[in-house]
Design a protein that fits this description.
By secondary structure, the protein is of the alpha/beta class. The protein has one domain (8-268): Rossmann fold (3-Layer(aba) Sandwich), CATH 3.40.50.150. The chain has helices at 8-12, 18-43, 61-68, 80-89, 125-135, 156-167, 169-174, 184-193, 213-222, 232-246; strands at 51-55, 72-77, 94-97, 110-116, 136-147, 200-210, 256-268. A seven-stranded mixed beta sheet has the order 3-2-1-4-5-7-6. Strand 1 (51-55), helix 3 (61-68) and strand 2 form a beta-alpha-beta unit. The longest helix is centred in the first third of the chain and has 26 residues, at 18-43.
């Protein structure tokens, strides 16, 4: 929801303000999420038209990738802050406020359904997957992506303890939900709960790139779930400590880069 004062519990469920959504779109999309969207669209078999539903669409990154393939695209999200940006960026797609666990569409309404890096935030993951399968036409594909664990993710395995050191344990814990389905056994359990026992799980590795150390921290904090938990003082403390803790990810030109491992789960409905 687009609320002016996001609380810690909002961070744990991925809720961000419209202002943070703009930071997310401007910086996070080119730094990380944009590269995965065409891969997910390809995995879902979207190659030339068709009706596509993107669940928990965020700012519409995957929706735009599907539009580029000639698809007719609908995106849903429970976060109005995100949808505001999605509508601006992709006026030819249809975006509406809706929960993944209760999709407002008839059975077999879409040829493919996608969900990029959002399953971990959903209140009832199994029900959400069942809903995605319900609205997908028989023979169509359902494709979701999740991050590997934070411990297996370069950059984050050092950033999370730093957040705990500077902002406290609660902030570090609030940063972990995006990585909560990174264990394959956990992901497989969720897929079974959603009736997708036969889903193929594919490991994919992208690259995270930021212009500088400060840009990395500003993007991670300002464009994601901790946006309303950080003060100018904590940001200054993070940036002062970061070169010592995170310096291994800085290149000779001052840019930041490291691998972003993820899993794709693809099922034919």
């Amino acid at each position: 929801m687009d609320t002016p004062g996001m609380k810690q519990e909002d961070a744990a469920t991925g809720q961000i303000t419209a202002a943070a959504a703009r930071v997310y779109e401007q910086f996070f999309v080119p730094a990380l999420f944009g590269q995965f969207a065409p891969w997910l669209v390809e995995a879902a078999g979207i190659r030339g038209g068709g009706r596509v539903l993107d669940v928990a669409t965020g700012t519409g990154i995957v929706a735009r990738a599907a539009l580029a393939r000639g698809a007719s695209v609908t995106g849903v999200d429970i976060n109005e802050g995100m949808l505001t940006i999605a509508r601006e960026k992709a006026p030819h797609a249809s975006f509406q406020l809706a929960a993944a666990e209760s999709l407002p569409f008839e059975d077999n309404s879409f040829d493919a359904v996608t969900c990029q890096f959002a399953l971990m935030f959903l209140a009832d993951r199994g029900q959400a997957l069942r809903e995605m399968a319900r609205v997908c036409h028989p023979g169509g594909h359902l494709a979701v992506s999740v991050f590997d664990t934070w411990e297996n993710s370069p950059g984050y395995r050092d950033l999370v303890p730093l957040l705990g050191e500077i902002m406290g344990d609660a902030a570090a814990e609030a940063f972990k939900p995006p990585f909560s389905l990174g264990d394959p056994a956990t992901l497989e359990k969720v897929l079974r709960e959603g009736g997708l026992e036969d889903a193929q799980i594919i490991h994919k590795t992208g690259q995270i790139r930021h212009a500088s150390m400060d840009a990395w921290l500003d993007t991670e904090i300002g464009g994601w779930t901790l946006a309303s938990l950080a003060t100018p003082e904590t940001m200054a403390a993070l940036k002062a400590r970061a070169p010592e803790v995170l310096g291994q990810y800085r290149n000779s030109d001052g840019t930041i880069s490291f691998e972003a491992p993820a899993f794709f789960a693809v099922a034919q409905v």
